[in-house]
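Cross-posting from the chemistry board since nobody answered there.

I work mostly on the small-molecule side, so proteins are not my area. We synthesized 2-acetamido-2-deoxy-beta-D-glucopyranose and want a rough idea of how it might sit in this target. Sequence and SMILES are below. Is it possible to get a predicted 3D structure of the two together?
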Amino acid sequence: MLDTCIRYPYSKFTLRFFQACQVLKITRKKSYILLGVFVLLSVAYTFWSAKHHQALVYYVRNRFINQALYRAPELNAAELNNTHLLLYWTPFFQNVAFDGFGRRPFAKCPVSNCVATNDRRYLRRADAVLFHGADMSVLDLPAERSPRQLYAYYVHESPPQLDMLLGPLNSAFNITLTYRRDSDVHMPYFRLVACNESESLAVTQDRQSELTPPPGVVPPGGPLVAWVVSHCSTDGRREDYVAQLRRYIAVDEFGACSGRPCPRPGALQCYQHLARSHLFYLAFENSLCRDYVTEKFFNALHVGLVPVARGATRAEYEALAPPDSFLHVDDFAGPQELADHLRWLASNGTALARYHRWRSQYRFAPRERWCRLCELMSRHMEPGTAVLPDLHSWWYEGAQCHS
Ligand SMILES: *[C@@H]1O[C@H](CO)[C@@H](O)[C@H](O)[C@H]1NC(C)=O
Ligand SMILES: *[C@@H]1O[C@H](CO)[C@@H](O)[C@H](O)[C@H]1NC(C)=O
Ligand SMILES: *[C@@H]1O[C@H](CO)[C@@H](O)[C@H](O)[C@H]1NC(C)=O
Ligand SMILES: *[C@@H]1O[C@H](CO)[C@@H](O)[C@H](O)[C@H]1NC(C)=O
């Protein structure tokens, strides 16, 4: 009996396992081997499933559910006449239609002879096939490809948030659509453009009616700095910076990390509410990557707050927004100096007004995100002129993220 199995089980599972061994009269040595094989198999399965379960889920969802239930309306003869066709191969998270089907995404473009669909029966006709990185599955790829067809890779997140599973597709893409300015199609979260004179007057009136109270005027005594945050531990360690900042100035925090929900639901409504009682907003990105500036920054600008930026470099922010519309953590030696400056600005209306002056000179413009893609599709590029031999390294090394 001593030679069968083991007498000191470590858990319910091993207890049952060794009991079974005893019943089956398996020797101790063999039972160890069996257990070892079992452990190895479960470790291998864990790794395999982490990689493939997601792919499998996307495969089933895209291939069967979306194509059966959420297929774009059939394109009519006029839509197919002399147009360039964009095929959404995947959805954009839960959204199968992106910015619409047919001519809609391109309606306001300078080059607008493009149509979009997610109907896979148009695969052969498609001039470009669009893959959203987070919805793509290596199990679910087009069955055929013509050499003149552009594969477009689309993502809004930065590398620390998106684990790219490209596999055999690593060198299959021709163009990228990301937040990075060196993408073939730059997809910023928002676009601000300088107004001409007749516009700036209209914009000023428009903005003034929209912003109540006017930007930069808050009830005295309250906290100056607002922050809404739901990812508590980040790659860019913004939580450490804020912890230090808090030693010198109060930060009014909302969101999942503080357990204080924003008094208004909905992102923009929340920001609008905060703008009534705060002057500054900590627009701290969760990762520090080149060009990575998200809606938190633009929402703050939009509602009348002065964003304090942390994420991309100041020069990269200036490529997206007027230089005097925000503060940047790099402008200060550290959190203490930033806190002192915020307090000083709050006490000096003239100095603070400088950060709102842009409001009469710039306006938020429609992003027209798909225009450049339509233009690229209509170029009839020769095969071999738009190749990305290693998308993986373009994405990871080119992102220039740091902590
Ligand atoms: C297709 O477009 C051309 C001009 O681009 C036009 O002359 C022709 O009538 C159109 N054909 C159909 C069937 O709409
Ligand atoms: C100013 O912008 C408006 C709207 O975009 C445009 O209609 C107008 O022609 C522009 N004026 C000048 C002087 O550029
Ligand atoms: C307030 O700001 C203005 C403009 O930056 C500056 O000229 C002035 O000296 C400041 N006043 C105080 C009291 O710091
Ligand atoms: C698109 O990428 C594929 C795969 O790398 C390549 O064979 C094809 O020539 C590219 N198309 C263009 C227009 O460069």
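Reply from a structural biologist on the board:
Welcome over. Reading the output above for you: DSSP finds twelve helices and 13 strands in the chain. Residues 147, 171-172, 174, 381, 383-387 surround 2-acetamido-2-deoxy-beta-D-glucopyranose (ligand 4) (CB under 6 Å). Happy to explain the token format if needed.
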